UniProtKB/TrEMBL annotation:
Name this polypeptide is given: Gamma-glutamylcyclotransferase AIG2-like domain-containing protein
Upper lineage: Bacteria, Bacillati, Actinomycetota, Actinomycetes, Kitasatosporales
Domain of life: Bacteria
Domain spans labelled Gamma-glutamylcyclotransferase AIG2-like: 16-145
Amino acid sequence: MTSVVRPPDPTAPLPFFVYGTLRPGEVNHDLFLRGRTVAEEPASLPGAALYAGPGYPYAVDRPGSAVAGELITAAPEAYGALLTALDVLEEYGGPGRPGNVYDRIAREALRADGTPVRAWVYLASPLVSRDLRESGTEIPGGDWLARCHP
């Protein structure tokens, strides 16, 4: 079962679950995360499927599926600026905004050993999710890196 928990503070210092171009070795990791993290570890996001976008993926809620990625813990001194930068990158303007491309929500991710951890994740907004479910291209296995680097 996937739990969705919204902390009372949308700037709560949670780790980030990343699954696409923010993963280590990918272009946005180098631009946004390099030197701003204290930990990066393999993880998965249960209850989500991955769809191809125009050069980057979208995660969409779907029970029974999982997305592969990394759990990124920001350096405390970099957290606020990083949260702002990632919100801009992901075109997230705040909870429930109609122009959001992604929504940032707190979700339970799983470390490689199965330990759950609450983390921020950017999921496709409801309108984008609907379009992807209707006519998008799902990434088999939910792993962006396997799709890009077989």
